[in-house]
């Protein structure tokens, strides 16, 4: 099964083409250009180098957040656009689950940490269990201190591998807190579309795919417009109750 | 380093904005965050208009409704924000505010003090206060240029 996967939720722009888990083509770009300018030309170049077209793709995938608000929207929109009309399935992979794929096979806890600014990380805890990558905690936006506390309860002195664009900050923070961190090889630290494709393939096998219409971003934070709508609905509800 | 300037008109406030832009340019500072605070009508947009004009940008308007105006095509882009309509950190995320950090260019942000955590470390602060005279403004610029270049003390425009 040919998979085209996009990663644009962090600083890096990454695109990969795979056949099931086998990598056919891939690229990682970090050159200052915006992801909206890069994703499609990169995909076109990779496909053309592989003598493939968008019509040969069986599954479209992207990381659907958490991450940069703009980046998440770009990735999800691109996949929606490509799958629309081709009637092909889509998979939205948690950026953190995709990052954990980078370290599949390691022996400790895997803790992807993305910079969520203002002292916060987007993070989740994973570990290998009986040869499978297992999720230990859900994706969340969490303060550094709180994450340390949580990790120290869960890891109990076992090794922790960090990855993601918050690598340096998180690793430094964890060490200061007395957690046992291992060095993650440089090439395994970053968000990657190949990891997204691998995670998407496994999700597809479990039946966790959707149509382009159902594919949606997962911000972990409610967009301003949506919160205003909810607050308004809440106000109207309470007004109605008073009238009754 | 804190410096206080006096402005007697919107045009003088613009001049001061232009002077700050010139200073950043002279020092080859490619990324800066300028926090602009001051009550309604004090001249935050006028300051920005002057700042942007140094780089050849025209048509600067208050981004109160758009949240951000981007001025591009010159030497460096300017991202002109107004946080007046935003209420908290969640808004900073979902307006894309956070995504502008780490890009070359100048972020100039009106009402940056409204949301705790909006102003990053190392920001240049510009506070505009009305004085007793009708058009008079006291403008306090707090900037820490790391190269420690010499500056004239308390220049009044």
Can you offer a commentary on this structure?
- The complex is a heterodimer of chains A (244) and B (157).
- By secondary structure, chain A is an alpha/beta fold.
- Chain A folds into two domains: 2-95 and 191-228, ATPase, nucleotide binding domain (Nucleotidyltransferase, domain 5), CATH 3.30.420; 105-183, ATPase, nucleotide binding domain (Nucleotidyltransferase, domain 5), CATH 3.30.420.40.
- Chain A contains seven helices and twelve strands.
- In chain A, the strands form two sheets. In chain A, strands 6, 7, 8, 9, 10, 11 and 12 form a seven-stranded mixed sheet that branches.
- In chain A, helix 1 (35-49) packs across helix 2 (69-83) and helix 3 (95-102) packs across helix 6 (193-205).
- Chain A is globular and about 50 Å long.
- The termini of chain A are far apart.
- In chain A, 45% of the residues are buried.
- The model of chain A has no long low-confidence stretch (mean pLDDT 93).
- With 157 residues, chain B is α/β, with parallel strands linked by helices.
- Chain B has one domain: P-loop containing nucleotide triphosphate hydrolases (Rossmann fold).
- Chain B has three helices and seven strands, in the order βαβαββαβββ.
- The longest helix of chain B is centred in the N-terminal third of the chain and has 17 residues, at 10-26.
- Chain B is globular and about 40 Å long.
- Chain B starts with a strand and ends in a 15-residue tail after the last strand.
- Mean pLDDT of chain B is 90; it is low at 148-157.
- The interface between A and B is medium-sized, with 15 and 16 residues.
């Amino acid at each position: 099964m040919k998979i085209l996967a996009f990663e644009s939720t962090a600083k890096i722009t990454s695109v990969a083409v795979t056949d099931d888990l086998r990598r056919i083509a891939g690229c990682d770009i970090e050159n200052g250009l915006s992801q909206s300018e890069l994703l499609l030309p990169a995909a076109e170049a990779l496909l053309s180098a592989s003598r493939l077209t968008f019509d040969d793709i069986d599954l479209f995938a992207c990381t659907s957040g958490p991450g940069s608000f703009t980046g998440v929207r770009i990735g999800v929109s691109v996949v929606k656009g490509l799958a629309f009309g081709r009637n092909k399935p889509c998979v939205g992979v948690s950026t953190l689950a995709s990052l954990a794929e980078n370290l599949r096979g390691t022996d400790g806890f895997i803790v992807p940490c993305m910079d969520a600014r203002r002292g916060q990380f987007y993070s989740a805890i994973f570990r290998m269990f009986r040869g499978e990558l297992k999720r230990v905690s859900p994706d969340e936006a969490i303060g550094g201190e709180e994450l340390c506390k949580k990790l120290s309860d869960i890891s109990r002195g076992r090794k922790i591998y960090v990855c993601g664009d918050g690598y340096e900050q998180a690793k430094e923070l964890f060490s200061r807190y007395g957690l046992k961190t291992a060095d993650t090889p440089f090439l395994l630290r970053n968000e990657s579309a190949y990891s997204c494709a691998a995670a998407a393939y496994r999700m597809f096998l479990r039946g966790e795919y959707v149509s382009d219409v159902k594919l949606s971003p997962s911000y972990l934070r409610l967009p301003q417009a949506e919160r205003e709508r909810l607050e308004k609905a809440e106000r109207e509800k309470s007004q109605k109750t008073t009238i009754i | 380093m804190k410096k206080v300037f006096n402005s007697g008109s919107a045009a003088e406030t613009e001049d001061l904005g232009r002077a700050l832009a010139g200073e950043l340019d002279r020092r080859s500072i490619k990324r800066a965050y300028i926090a602009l605070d001051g009550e309604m009508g004090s001249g935050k947009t006028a300051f920005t208009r002057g700042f942007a004009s140094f780089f050849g940008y025209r048509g600067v308007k208050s981004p109160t409704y758009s949240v951000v105006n981007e001025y591009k095509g010159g030497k460096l882009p300017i991202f002109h924000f107004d946080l007046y309509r935003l209420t908290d950190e969640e808004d900073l995320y979902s307006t894309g505010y956070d995504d502008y950090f780490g890009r070359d260019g100048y972020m100039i942000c009106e009402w940056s003090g409204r949301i705790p955590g909006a102003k990053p470390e190392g920001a240049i602060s510009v506070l505009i206060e009305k004085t007793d005279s009708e058009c008079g403004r006291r403008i306090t610029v707090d900037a820490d240029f790391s190269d420690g270049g010499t500056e004239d003390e308390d220049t009044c425009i």
